[in-house]
Amino acid sequence: MIGFGAGQPDFPTPDYVVEAAAAAVHERTNHGYTAAGGLPELREALAAKTLRDSGFACDPSQILVTNGGKQAVYSAFATLLDPGDEVLLLAPYWTTYPESITLAGGVPVQVTADESTGYLATVEQLEAARTERTKVLLFNSPSNPTGAVYPREQVEAIGRWALEHGIWVVTDEIYEHLVYDGVKAESMPVLVPELADQTLILNGVAKTYSMTGWRVGWIIGPQDVVKAATSFQSHMCGNVANVSQRAALAAVEGPLDIVHTMREAFDARRKRIVSLLSGIPGVECPTPQGAFYAYPSVKGVLGKEIRGERPADTVALADLILREAEVAVVPGEAFGTPGYFRFSYALAEADLVEGVTRVGNLLSEAK
Ligand SMILES: Cc1ncc(COP(=O)(O)O)c(C=O)c1O
């Protein structure tokens, strides 16, 4: 079985990070409770890292350290939303987003962009979805699941639109360093500085430093909102594990070597997978410019006969591929857009080639 489902880099956490954590285990101060908002040293390092990487300047008091980017997403919505508030959710979206919004009492309002625009939504689409109840726009570039990266002008145009209408922006920048073809992941409140008072930036060490299991993320935002989110976190779970925070500190204070190494490996695999997928009849695959996912449309294959079956949707087609080709892909239904598959290319290149070749051979039987 070859799996294309992985949402994490297939590289180990750098040694110096592991060593910092090992040393932290033996330090008495890490054995007790610490400030709910995060270790002061870490919050300072995160402020410096953010200025270095995206150009956004903030004070450590504007940062809350969370249990991974995932908790940052939920806490952001729990803090911002009143029951019934609407959140514009750009689809294809990361599976956790609508669940977090709903759990926090909000209403996700889906705005869908397809392969014809490289999965990039426009201001016109956002404006068409805006109502009296629109409270937040959730933005994620580079995107999971499509790998799309919004160009500078479009980030700025969307930011200006949000500013004009008093809409909060929650911008998830967790894939900021995984970009290819010379593109840059732009930070919305850097391009539209006036927006900073109504923006929460979400980030984490998981993807940049291959640290998914350490569970460290953060929220950056206006002081009053971060204070409320910190209070919420203090009652929900208290501080993030101190050893993990020490590991994150070593990571963000250290070099970006690992992400550069990963980026090179991912880039080679990205080119390979796009070219292999594009050669399959009925499959259309825009070239992703970020993250480690390809998101081809397979609409051209749906409804056709393959090995005596006629899969009508991508859940059924993914099931057929799993049984007949022993390859696991994630159907677009998980991301709010049936008709697509997400292929993660966080796997060895030989497996990638073998897996996509098997899928291609099976789909080529469609008639
Ligand atoms: C877009 C996006 N944001 C946030 C996260 C959260 O990552 P973590 O909770 O591991 O920090 C993920 C993980 O898959 C993601 O894809």
Features:
single chain; 367 residues; alpha/beta; Aspartate Aminotransferase, domain 2; 2 domains; seven-stranded mixed β-sheet
What's the topology here?
Layout lengths: L1 E2 L11 H11 L14 H14 L9 E4 L1 H13 L5 E6 L4 H8 L3 E6 L10 H7 L4 E7 L11 H13 L3 E5 L15 H4 L7 E6 L12 E4 L2 H14 L5 H12 L3 H22 L14 E2 L19 H12 L1 E2 L1 E2 L9 E4 L4 H15 L4
Parallel strand pairs: 1-10, 3-4, 3-5, 5-6, 6-7
Antiparallel strand pairs: 2-8, 7-8, 9-12, 11-12
The structure holds pyridoxal-5'-phosphate (PLP).
CATH architecture of the largest domain, please?
3-Layer(aba) Sandwich
* Termini gap: 25 Å
Number of domains: 2
CATH classification, class level of the largest domain: Alpha Beta
Largest sheet: 7 strands, mixed
Whole-angstrom Rg: 21 Å
Quaternary state reads single chain
Low-confidence stretches: none
Determine the number of helices (DSSP H or I, runs of at least 4 residues): 12
- List cofactors, ions and other ligands: pyridoxal-5'-phosphate
